[in-house]
Amino acid sequence: MNRILNLLSGSSPRPGYYRLEADESPSLSTSGQKFAARKFPQYLATFVANIGAFALGNALGWTSPSLPNIEERGDFNNLQANSDLATWIGSMTPLGCFFSGFVAGFLVEKIGRRWTMLVMALPFVGGWLIISFAPTPTWMLAGRFLTGFCGGAFTLTVPVYASEISEDSIRGVLSNLMGLAINGGIFFTYVVGSLVPWTTSSLICAFFPAIFAVGMYFMPETPVYLTSKGRVNDALESLMWLRGADYYDQVKDELKSIEASVGNVSKSPTLKELLQPSVLKPGVICLMLMFFQQFGGINAVTFYSVDIFKDAGTNIDDNLSAIILGVVQVTFVIVSTMVIERLGRRILLILSEVGISISLLALGTYFFIKEQYPEQATGLGWLPLTSLMAYVLSFNFGLGPVPWTLMGELSPPHAKGLISSLTTAFSWGLGFIITKFFKDMTIALTTYGCYWFFSACSFAGLVYCIIFVPETKGKSSVEIQESFKKH
C-alpha cells in the first residue's frame, strides 16, 4: 500500500516513479505460476506517446478537406491560391518530416526519447496557429512545414520508445499502434474538416500536441536509453514503473539483459562499427522497407480516390468518400495490430505486398481501358472501387505500419539514433517527391502507367520481404541482434 501511495503522491524523484530503496526486494508468489509483469503502464505510456503520432495524422489529413476549398475559392485570409501553391501546401508537411528525421535522430541520443518528443510539442502547437492565422502564402507554407517537422519526429521516436519500454510478448502490438494513431488522426481531420472551416479545424488540431505534452511529462524515459547513458538506477526505476513494483526479481533480470545488450553507448558509433553486419544489415532492411512503402503508391491512390468513387457511379460527396477511406484505413490497422503477435511481422508484409500488387495492377488496367477504350469502361465502374478498397486494406494491414515497427525492433541500441534518423528522413524524402511531382509522373507515364509502375515495385517488395526480412515475433533485442551477427 505504501508503494501505491508513493506512486500517487509523486514523492519519487521523477513524475510517477517509485524510488526503490536499496534493501527492498518485493517477494513473489511461490505458487509456481509463470508471472507476467503488469501491462497497463506499458499500454498507457505508449498511448500517450501516440497522441503525438495522432497529431501528425491531423497534419497529413488536413489537406484533403481543406485544399479543394482553397482551390475553388481562390482566397482565404487574403491568400491567393492556385494549383501550384496547393501542391506546395500539400507537400510541405512531408518536407518538414524529412528534415526532422536528421534532427530527431540526433536528439534521441542526446536528450532521450521522452524529451525529444516533449520539445516538439510547443512548436507543433505554434505551427497550427500559424496555419490558422496566416496572412500570406509564405506564412501558410511555414506553418505546414513546422507541423511536418514536429510531427515527423514522432515517426522516429514513437516506434523506438514503444519497442524499448515493452515486454517481448507485446512489443509488436505496442509498436504497431503508431500506424493506428496516424490513421486515426487522418480520419479525425477528414471528419472535422467536412464540418467546419479549415481555419477552425486548424485550431482544433492545435489542442492535441498540447494534450500530448501534459501526458508525456508524467511518463518515464526508456530503460534502454537510461542504461546506455550509464544511469542504471534510473533505468531500474523506469522498469519498476513499467512492470510493477511486485516484479522486482524479473525486473532485475530484465535490466541485466538490457545492460548486456546495450552497455554504455554514450559515444557515437565509429565508421568501423557502422559497417559491421549487426548494424549494416538492419539499416539496409529498414531503408528498403521504407522504399517499398513509399513506392507502394499510397499517395498516388489517395490522389485519385475521389475520381475512383465517381467512376464507380456512386455520386458520393468528396468529403464522404475521404471519410469512407479513413474508416477502412483505421479498421485494417486495428486488424494488423490485433494479429501482429500471432502471424508475425514478416507474414503481414508478404500478404500486404501481394494484395497491393494485384490491386494496383487492376487499378492500372481500369485506367488503361478508360483512356484507350472509353466505350468499354462504362460497365466497369465496380473495378476501380473494388481495387481501391482492396489496396487500402492491404496497405494498412502490413506495408503501412509494419516498417515503422521493424525500425524500432531491428536497430541495435548503439546505432538506433542513426538508423532511425536515416530511415525516417529517407521515407519522408520519398514521400515529398511523390506528393509534389505525382502530377508530373502521370504526364510522363500516364495514369495507368504510374499504377503499373507502383504494382511492379510492390512485386519487387514482395520478393525482397520473402528473401531478406527476418521475423522478430517474440524475440528479445539480444536475440534479434545476435541473428544479424550469425548471418
UniProtKB/TrEMBL annotation:
An annotated Gene Ontology molecular function: sugar transmembrane transporter activity
Membrane topology: Multi-pass membrane protein
Major facilitator superfamily (MFS) profile domain location: 45-473
Presence of keyword Transmembrane helix: yes
InterPro entries the UniProt entry points to: MFS_dom, MFS_ERD6/Tret1-like, MFS_sugar_transport-like, MFS_Trehalose_Transporter, Sugar/inositol_transpt, Sugar_transporter_CS
Listed GO CC annotations: plasma membrane
Pfam families xref list: Sugar_tr (PF00083)
Keywords, alphabetical: Cell membrane, Glycoprotein, Membrane, Transmembrane, Transmembrane helix, Transport
Subcellular location: Cell membrane
PROSITE patterns: MFS, SUGAR_TRANSPORT_1, SUGAR_TRANSPORT_2
Primary location class: membrane
Transmembrane intervals: 43-65, 85-108, 115-135, 141-161, 173-192, 198-219, 279-300, 320-340, 347-369, 381-406, 418-438, 450-469
Protein family per UniProt: Belongs to the major facilitator superfamily. Sugar transporter (TC 2.A.1.1) family. Trehalose transporter subfamily.
Protein name: Major facilitator superfamily (MFS) profile domain-containing protein
